[in-house]
Amino acid sequence: MTAAAPAPDSGTDEPSPMGPLSQLIQAELDKGKSLRELGKAAVDPNTGEKISWQYFQKLVKTPPASAPSPVQMRAIAAALGKSENRIKEAVAEQWLDYRATELAGYGGTVRIILGHLGAMTEQERKRWLAMIEADERARREE
């Protein structure tokens, strides 16, 4: 069963020239994190492999022609404190111009939750996103 996902509202009228993954990284830099801090935290939890702070710099300034590998995506997720799925969505949009517009394989509860989120203001959705991401970080730290 599929349910249409609401299109995210970027909050701006003009699209950013920066791709979605680059934007996620830049947002962390704008919050005060350094490239070196991101590099230290960029460890794939499955393999223990790391990526360098220079890779983050490249992703923001001059993204490579090829998308990050699954190992790199997991390390990026760890460094940014985002879910692996969120990073995969950003990578798919930035490198493949693909945007997920539907959810498959989820039950009625998820559709009900999405219905509530779709009816919220952008500010309310941002608050819920922050709560969900905080929960994910807390679970990773356990």
Structure, described:
The chain is mainly alpha-helical and 142 residues long. A two-stranded antiparallel sheet has the order 1-2. The protein has helices at 20-30, 35-41, 53-61, 70-80, 84-96, 108-119, 122-141, and strands spanning 2-4, 102-104. The chain is globular and about 40 Å long. α1 (20-30) crosses α3 (53-61), α1 (20-30) crosses α5 (84-96) and α2 (35-41) packs across α3. 58% of the residues lie in helices and 4% in strands.
Poorly predicted ranges (pLDDT <50, ≥5 residues)?
Answer: 1-15
**Percent range for helical residues?**
55-70%
Helical segment count: 7
Give the strand order of the largest sheet, numbering strands 1, 2, ... along the chain: 1-2
Category from helices, strands and their pairing: mainly alpha
- Please state the CA-atom Rg, rounded to the nearest Å: 16 Å
DSSP strand count: 2
Q: Report, as a whole number of angstroms, the end-to-end distance.
A: 34 Å
Q: What characterizes the major β-sheet?
A: 2 strands, antiparallel
Q: Specify the overall morphology.
A: globular
**Proportion in β-strands:** under 5%
Mean pLDDT: 85
Q: Helix and strand string, N-terminal first?
A: EHHHHHEHH
